[in-house]
Amino acid sequence: MFSSFPVKVIAGLGANVTLPCGLLSKDSFSFGNTGIRVKWTKVADDEALNEDVLLSMGFHKKTYGSFEDRVFLEEKDSQDASITITDVAMDDTGRYRCEIINGMEDTVQEILLEVQGGLIDGVVFPYSPSEGRYNLNFEEAVQACEEQDAVVASYDQLFEAWKNGLDWCNAGWLSDATVKYPITRPRAPCGGTVDGPGVRNYGYQDKQSRYDVFCYTSAIKGRFYWLSQPDRLSFDEAVQACLDDGAEIAKVGHIYAAWKIEGYDRCDAGWLADGSVRYPISRPRKNCSPTEAAVRFVGFPDKMLKVYGVYCFKAEQ
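== Hyaluronan and proteoglycan link protein 1a ==
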């Protein structure tokens, strides 16, 4: 059986990507039959130059060449022959052939993989509401990210952030309704040290369960800035001060994008639209996040307190 319409898959440079393949007939043998062989090949214009990617027969699996230790069978069920390629490179662009061979009814499928020149400039950030950690069901998580000028992050985006050093001990929703958290420094309170660094996985969860969320925002279209004021402000005064300046009080997504993408740095704690107080440090120094570049989180203080300034955002006209 041959699937005549190749599936096209697009991935960002450095991301993980899944190439789908499975038995086309539900009446076919499952992969539990050790006689079934799964073979993945990267197809060249000249078939003599084809590259072996992965070969699987029963419990025996082997990857080849540049794909060694970088390609894994998904095996989500007994009829799934999809593979995941990790840390996608530009050279991975091309046509892939999946063959499921049982000697009676073979299945052949082709997938076109396009690797784009880079991930969209953006940043993943963990978010929890003023009520504290583990207070968002999936629908509330989606809304929370939207309110911060962001969307719920995908696994690929979280994985890329982990590779770039994101370490967070609280589990959060992702866009596919799985729950994960990134650990670069394994330690006892954060899942232990046995598994080593990685993106820890709680898997798919009931959408009414409550966790934090990982949000993703891209480059801001406008200006994020600290509003100079003679006095410190309450939250309501901060909101009004930005309005008086022809802007709006900045959101959490704005401060993360300005910090990560633009290198914004200021050692003054300021109100944001969700009622939190934060400040962005891209140049660690004494008394200003001395150990790491980060958006520092002060908390959700009493909104009547007049001890903080404000960060504003003025959208492009």
